Amino acid sequence: MSVLIFVDQTEGHIKKASFEVLTYGAAxxxxxxxxxxxxxxxxxNDDLAALGKYGVKKVHQVANETLNHVDxxxxxxxxxxxxxxxxxxxxVFSHNQTGKAVSAxxxxxxxxxxxxxxxxxxxxxxxxxxxxxxFSGKAFAxxxxxxxxxxISLNPNSYKTVAGEGTAEVVALxxxxxxxxxxxxxxNKVSGEVPLTEADIVVxxxxxxxxPENWGVLLDLAKELHAATACSRPVxxxxxxxxxxxxxxxxxxxxxxxxxxxxxxxxxxxxAGVNRSxxxxxxxxxxxxxxxKAADYGIVGDLFEVVPKLTEEIKKMRAAG
Amino acid sequence: MKILVCVSKTxxxxxxxxxxxxxxxxxxxxxxxxxxxYDEWYALVRAIELxxxxxxxxxxxxTVGLADCDPIIRKALALGGDEAxxxxxxxxxxxxxxxxIADVARQGAYDLILTGKETIDYNGSSIGGMVAELVDAxxxxxxxxxxxxxxxxxxxxxxxxxxxxxxxxxxxxxSCQKGVAEQRIPNMRGIMAARTKPLKVVEPAAIExxxxxxxxxxPPAKAGVKLVSPxxxxxxxxxLHEEAKAI
Lengths: 321, 247
What we know:
The structure holds two protein chains of two kinds. Chain A is α/β, with parallel strands linked by helices. Helix content of chain A is about 30%, strand content about 25%. In chain A, the strands form four sheets. Chain A has a seven-stranded parallel beta sheet, sandwiched between helices. In chain B, about 30% of the residues lie in helices and about 30% in strands. In chain B, strands 11-10-9-12-8-1-6-7-13 form a nine-stranded mixed beta sheet, with helices on both faces. The interface between A and B is large, with 94 and 81 residues.
């Protein structure tokens, strides 16, 4: 019995979302009175023993370069083998793009029940009940996993990452890896931007910005806050901003620490994508904008006047330390 | 060329979400049901576009649900599906649903299986991956573009921090999102034709559900917004820093 945590890597580095699931998986193992172990596929430049500081005792590595690229079919086979080899009865993924591609396949292969989009530690006092978001963030469901092996994929930004002390034992795991049936012909990474689902702070713009040429005020604020940028659906549909920035029910669903909405009225579909944010700030000139009802802080005013002032004040605060 | 499109019935995006029976059941009162937008706008419409380019393409629809799914299946047929299969079962467990679909998929020997990236009710993002595993096909998730050239599919898909372009030989399972196609509205001819298209109801295979929903909860209500004057932006910064500790 153990908790096996899938560690996600890209271009030789472990993803930030993995530190969150490592912390989560280690906490779950403590709660269940068992040990937490990690699994890494492929090769990385990072020090794997250092993952011990998130609470894992052992890191299994399948150091096969074919696995440096995510192919869900190969991954599922290898991960399922690792689950069997390590005797794990709980497998934890991040519900990021890789987790979405792989976790369900692993679950089906192992005939394991899965809760994807989990947002809290399971209740293991009486069975194994995991809380997850449903209805695109408008509600939660408590889901019981009834199979011997359980798979959880955790919504990013749901659990506080904690790094302590500790070193993990790194163990090579030899699992045969098939040739991939998928040929990758191009990879385009958006460099220099904070990935939306991993961002602590997100600054988002709506139709109130009136046109793509006015995004400067938003970008300045985002830069000052080291924030990711997002937009509402009409803005994405009008191609004022790239569609991967669209947050909402049919776009990306996010849960940052701070969400700042500029010129977004707050339609129910938009709220569904952002209402798990810990703090919501709304700046809108319409006092009747429904978003104010879902906000923690608000300013009723012209964003083109308020936002540059906000950026200045944050600069001042930072300078004052 | 045979395409299987997986469709699911979901509440309309504007639905008020509430629960009954001691928070164990979704309150369907006054809810308008639609085809899950990702299944309809992207997966199904892309299949229809492929059929428009190549008359040899057949589109089958599959859904797992009870007879109350029939109106949305008829709508999917009106948009352009050729025939539909409804597995007559009511279950929220993703493995149960995927195993039923995989059963249908194996019997139909499809070249291509398309799903939406997730449903907007349970948000599992699981069905595509599970079906792919159960039929042992490659799986490409979160597609934003899908092209077909003979028996080779070229798929642009979202990955961590960007996108990639992948080529794969059929059969393949693909989950679709925005970019793959554009939403359409069924025309009168389609609606009339849909009435006579086959909608086969099959009984479910004996599959054990691996999860069950114990209860639902609504998020706690917000305490209420604290409004700050636009002439006192410094106060907002102070609140975010000292009170909310968010910056």
